[in-house]
Prior knowledge:
Layout: H1 7-22, E1 29-32, H2 40-44, E2 45-52, E3 70-76, E4 82-86, H3 98-110, E5 115-124, E6 133-142, H4 163-172, E7 177-183, H5 192-201, E8 205-207, H6 211-219, E9 223-233, H7 244-268
Parallel strand pairs: 1-4, 1-5, 5-9, 6-7, 7-8
Antiparallel strand pairs: 2-3, 3-4, 5-8, 6-9
Amino acid sequence: MTDLNDPTAAAEAAATTINAAAGIAHHDIALVLGSGWGGAADLLGETISEIPAAEVPGFHAPAVAGHGGTLRTVRITATGRHALVLGSRTHYYEGRGVRAVAHGVRTAAAAGCSSLVLTNGCGGLNRNWAPGTPVLISDHINLTGTSPIEGANFVDLTDLYSPRMRAIAKEIDPTLDEGVYAQFTGPHYETPAEVRMAGILGADLVGMSTTLEAIAARQAGMELMGISLVTNLAAGIQETPLSHAEVIEAGVAAGPRISQLLADIVARL
């Protein structure tokens, strides 16, 4: 019997289930689709398998409105490679622990994925980035106070967000800006003072996901890219109160455009 308290064993059990459902030996690339990004999976190619997250070891139904609840295998039309689309993301604020947050990424690695694309919806500190603007993540600041890495395992995070993958994204859309993403724990939105602090530290984007997954991906040896959708200006920069409904609305409005952008990027990776 698999010990789901062992992160490696749990990831291998989940990967075995996903690969078997798809009828393939391994996947090639994984995508974590955050708020606004879900439509990209439909544009990549043919879906050959889709499993409710709760039926896969270590996964749970999504706790957040606007997030998908399945694990999907797509055969990419342009390349014939197989993408694992992780529509079920566990956020740190759900209280399941950092192992649960990293489980999706570790499962992707165990399923054979050598590369990963992380997406999210976030608040922007740059007034020039209107809601609906996609921004490549160039680096991150982890403000959660924790790490998915356990023990004396000293993983280098230099160039964590692949320069090669970012260059491909910019070839497809030369207008893409880059920025530093800061992850707070949530689930409350940041205060204006916290946003100012993040800006002083060097952040351009603030949100509640991504950095812990990115660290786990680097530990697993995956090359990764991150791309954020600015759904609103951050607190203190935007004068009106923040709301999750606003995040979903901005994601829906930008969905077709950013989904096509992401599908075009993935076809080149």
